[in-house]
Amino acid sequence: MALQIYGGQFRAGQGSTVHRHGFTLVELLVVVAIIAVLAAVLFPVFSRVRQKSHEVTCVSNLKQLLAASAMYAQDYDRTLVPARAGTAPGTLGYSWCVLLQPYLKSEQILLCPLEREGQVAARTTDLPHSYGINFSLTFNAGGFSSAPYTYRIAALDDVSSLIMFFDLKPGLEAMGSSYATDRLRRVDGRHFGRANFGFLDGHAKGMTAEETAEPKNLWLP
After folding, report:
1. pLDDT over 70 at 90, yes or no
2. What is the pLDDT of residues 148-176, one digit of tens each?
3. Which residues make Cβ contacts (< 8 Å) with residue 173, sequence separation at least 6?
4. Is residue 189 over pLDDT 90?
5. CB distance 172 to 102 below 8 Å
6. What gap in Å lies between CA 52 and CA 55, rounded to an integer?
7. Bridge partners, residue 171, by sequence
8. Residue 29: which region, alpha, beta or left (left: phi > 0; alpha: psi -120 to 50)?
9. Of residues 221 and 48, which shows the higher confidence score?
10. Burial class (CB in 10 A: 0-12, 13-18, 19+), 61
């Protein structure tokens, strides 16, 4: 039935049907373009939020490692867990990860969420981990000791400025190094170019590797 004009407006006659048109191709392309722009804007935001959550989990892991090392120290005459301990040179020995295992709720604490595969130190009974330990505090000259202790905590000054654990670069042994250049090389800035560090007083935070050496060296007692 034909449309009739009433007062300048079109109205359908009785029994007629008005058909609504769907999206035109141009309108559809505009919608797709808007969605693409929003995705381009929001994806980096969501990605950063996710990485930030990984960073928070990593800091939590380090704090739990510090708590475990504090419990270890209570059981071993207030001394720090060694990087590794064994009975004699030439033996396999045990890494700090194995020594702290009884004090950890889960072995997953040894793994940063951005480095889940982890690594195992050579020549040592070890567990997969993605954190390193500060050799300057936890490694004796021979590399092994019949009794697993190193520095006594009471002998250390300003423990809030001494690094104990850190984000370790993949592919490197977890036991750290006594050389300053090696220490910085082993640090992995996997959190927006920064690494997380756990300090002897129990706190953990993100820093660049360079910030741990200047203006104050945070590795040496």
Report:
1. no
2. 446 788 888 899 999 999 999 987 655 54
3. 119, 121, 122
4. yes
5. no
6. 5
7. none
8. alpha
9. 221
10. buried
Q: Is the peptide bond before 215 cis (omega within 30 degrees of 0)?
A: yes
Give dist(CA 80, CA 100) in Å, integer: 11
Residue with tokens 């300057």: 136
Residue 11: count other Cβ atoms within 10 Å of its Cβ.
11
| Entry pTM | 0.72
Residue type, 26: V
pLDDT at 23: 66
Q: What is residue 145's predicted lDDT score, i.e. its pLDDT?
A: 46
CA contacts within 13 A on the Cβ side of 65: 34
Contact 163, 201 (CB under 8 A): no
Tokens representing 57 are 């989990």
The SS3 of residue 119 is strand
Residue in 133, 144, 141, 138 with CA at minimum distance from that of residue 175: 133
Q: Return the amino acid letter for 16.
A: S
- The three-state secondary structure class of 106 is coil
Q: How is residue 38 annotated by DSSP?
A: H
Report yes or no: 221 and 162 within 8 Å, Cβ to Cβ: yes
Q: Give the position of tokens 């370790």.
A: 168
- Using CA of residue 64, residue 70, residue 75, residue 80, what is the dihedral sign? positive
